[in-house]
Amino acid sequence: MTNDSIEAKIGSLAPDFKLLATNGQEVSLTDFRGKKNVIVFFIRETSCPQCRTHVTQLGRMYGQFLEAGAEIVVILGEDVNKAKEYAEGIHLPFPILCDPDREIYHLYELEKYFLLFQRTASLIVDKDGLVRYLKRTTVPNVWLQESRELYGFVDSLNEEQKN
Questions:
Q1: Sheet holding 96-98: strands in order across?
Q2: What is the pTM of this model?
């Protein structure tokens, strides 16, 4: 894995990655190519209450996302043990991917702001591997409405992909 960043922007091919998940499997973004739209969410830190709220909300809405043809991929900059503890603590129905060296955070240009505050992001990658939605932030205080926004966007992609 290279540490060079590849600018992820709307309309561009999403930078691929392969990470170990809390269920023991390795998951790659290209695993979903041609099959499902993918929502990717980068957790800022395990101590971030807003991120926890957002991930919990994504977990509650997981069935709706699956029905809309989307998979959820959550990335945490911790080792697999800490990630498992985090996922089990909020009873997530999907695994968390582990990025202990934050290489994928860097790949998606989510460096720490002023070397202190981890940046976070939500993005939607369509079935063709293109970034269709991207929101990066340092202060994630709107994630609850973001969960609904993500669902609406994925649902609209389904209509678009049918035509």
A1: 26-28, 18-21, 96-98, 70-76, 37-42, 120-125, 131-137
A2: 0.82
